[in-house]
Specification:
The protein is an alpha/beta fold and 868 residues long. It is 46% helix and 16% strand. An 8-stranded mixed sheet has the order 16-15-22-20-19-18-17-21, with helices on one face. Strands 10-11-12-8-13-14 form a 6-stranded mixed sheet, sandwiched between helices. It has a 4-stranded antiparallel sheet with strand order 1-2-4-3.
Amino acid sequence: MNNQAFDILEFDSLRALVRRQATTEMGKGFIDRLAPNNNPAELQRDLLHVSEMIEARQNGARFSFDGIANPAEAISRLKIQGTALDPLAILDLGRLCDRALAARATILAEREGCPKLFEIVAPLSTDLGKLTASLNKKILPSGDLDDRASPQLAAIRRDLATARSRITRSLESLMRRASEAIQEELVTVRNDRFVIPVRADHQSRIKGVAHGSSSSGATVFVEPLETIEANNELQTLREAEQREIAEILFRLSEELRRQLPDIELAAAVIAELDFINAKAAFGESLDCVVPEVAQTSVCEPGQTSQTEVCATLEFINARHPLLEENLRATGGAAVPVSFKLDSDHPVMVISGANAGGKTVVLKTAGLLSLMALSGLPVPAKSARVPFYQSILADIGDHQSLAANLSTFTSHVANIASMIELCKAPALVLLDEVGTGTDPEEGSGLGVAVVDHFRQRGAQVLATTHYSGLKMYAANEPGVLNASVEFDEKTLQPTYRLLVGLAGSSSGLEIAKRFGIPGQIIQDAAAHVRQSSLDAIEYLRRIKSEAEEAEALRQALEEERAATAEKFASLDKDFQQRELLRKSEFEKALKQTVADFEKLSRELLAKIEDRAARVKVEREAERRAAELKRDAQRAAQEMSEQARKTRPAPRREKEVLPEPLRSIRVVRDGKVVSEGRGSEADVQANVDEPKKAPLDLDLPHELKAGDRVKLLTFGSTGVIDRIKGNEAEVRVGSLHMREKLSNLKAIGADVSTSRGSGRVKPTLEDLQKRSATTELHLHSKDSDSKFQTSSELNLIGKKTDEAVDLVDKFLDEAFLNGASEVRIIHGHGTGALRKAVAAILADHPHVARFKAGSSEQGGSGATVVELRE
């Protein structure tokens, strides 16, 4: 992207504002080179980096890069073989590596929310930690080498301390012996040798080498002859110390040189993280948002195809960052602006009063677009910016006496340059387009320039006072009118941008506010043409109507919010009522099932026959499970129906299904139990009940032997006999007494397979279920010793007796979950085999049967496969 608009939009000042947040020279260098990115993928990566850094900072993550020196010089020296770094340079590199690893640990802790930032620090080698630990042990923060840097250095320094102590004691003894010749009993150092201060007039008393005198000449610093040898030894030790220090620094430099690639990577990581952190800190300081930048491509001249991915420029509550920073210093705040340009409306013409903020809108749009394309957060509530190829601006007065440019010619020259540089997609900013010449010509030129950029595929923001441009915006599809608001009561601008209507310049009112005498204002008004006055009055009326519409919109918005709040309250109340209703329903259902199970246990306790008790217990469990499922299904349907009609006033408490209270159990013709009361003895025999005529209007007349469906249970059975309006029905080995109204003959529309043909019960069905049911139980045959769980032996039995045994055996096998059984009937006359085949052919539990194999008894046995 060209930099034509950088100076006009003060992009350098913006970079300086961001630069304040950087803490290293490398990070500041990145900011100094900050510019719009020409690579869409890199720009998206930069925006993701900033977004993740802002989120990490909000989660409490902080990066400390203070005190890190620029490692460029040290790294350059390490690239030269045989060179050694000074201790402070080595410490700086160690600090650099240490801070890089600390930043890596910080980002690793936020890895889930910072995947792109982690990609930056992931290549860092953890070996740098061992390196920095070694450096910190050998070099002190002051830059001196620690005695533990090497054993030789420690030994030399011990010898140095011993030599210094010996020399000091010797000199102190000498000064005490010749105290009258000593200026001051103080051992000092001159030319790296220990000396004593001798009075000049007594210098002959102390034999030795003079190493200078004081400024007054009264004191001579003398190295006595008796310490010359000791000083020479001390000097030798110092030279050995320096050689050892140089050797240690060389070894440390070599260690750094071996890890030079990792050190360079650490330096690059620190620079990039400081750069990203500075952008995020800038965003936090001005309450910025990370913009959405979408790539846009349009056809160039001469091309035949055009593809447009996204061409929307939208800012919500945008603020100029430099203006915001200046106003904050004085306790003020910038007035935010909101507008949108897209493919349907790529041009906006802004009019209104002078000093009303028109130019600020242009600069805000231009600078925030440059910031977005540079990977910076922008001060706005939300922002969308196309991936512009060029951003061009003509703002301000560019006149130059030296270049012989007037106001008009400078504008024209700049616009001509913009026309040459324009490369779509582009953003073009024109301030007072066409100004500086005859209003009629300027207005026409302004319309032509704006329309030219529009035809080139650019998005245009233009300010004007010309009526021609205002009319162009009002009449041309795709061009928006906008104005900056001006308070006519206070004669002060409000700096608000009103999109959708043009504004008047209010030049006379502003002139009056700035002190132009009233007579001059009256004379000026008299010279204004009536058409202009009408246009101004028309614009004022439109503005007034717009304000009324805005007030109405706000009132409607408040009413909508109140309605939404009330609806939310009603919905919450409905949810609470629904939860209460469900709770009550589940409680009652639980009690119903508990009552049923209790009744079942009471009935089972009265059944002496173990096999019959098992059958009834399983039937009771099955019916309890069905009752639970049916109740849950009914509750779910009620909830769905309630949701369709909510919110609704609370209804009276629903009638829940009552427990089964009127089950009668008849065993071998005797009433064992009735209801939930105590035992009652009833008639001794009900095997041959008297038949009575039926008074029911049934679809089909029922008779003994018919297969029927029990509507209350959903199971199927065979009618054994009918008495009055009741029938005794055999369901497997269970005999039940049901009302004829609860029976339905099985026809073509009802499946005869086990468990099929059930209808979905309603809440009323649950209330009526088992109201008139009787369970008839018969004792197990005394000859049950002939049968096992999977085999029945009928040899020696009569035909009628065998049929009964087979029926009971199949029922018991079915209830026990058997899948295959064997019935042994022998060969004999074949009558027993035929009787068995006859009952198996029509038995509800039998899926298929066949003669046994040779291992299973051949034709003397029948193998039966039971239904599942």
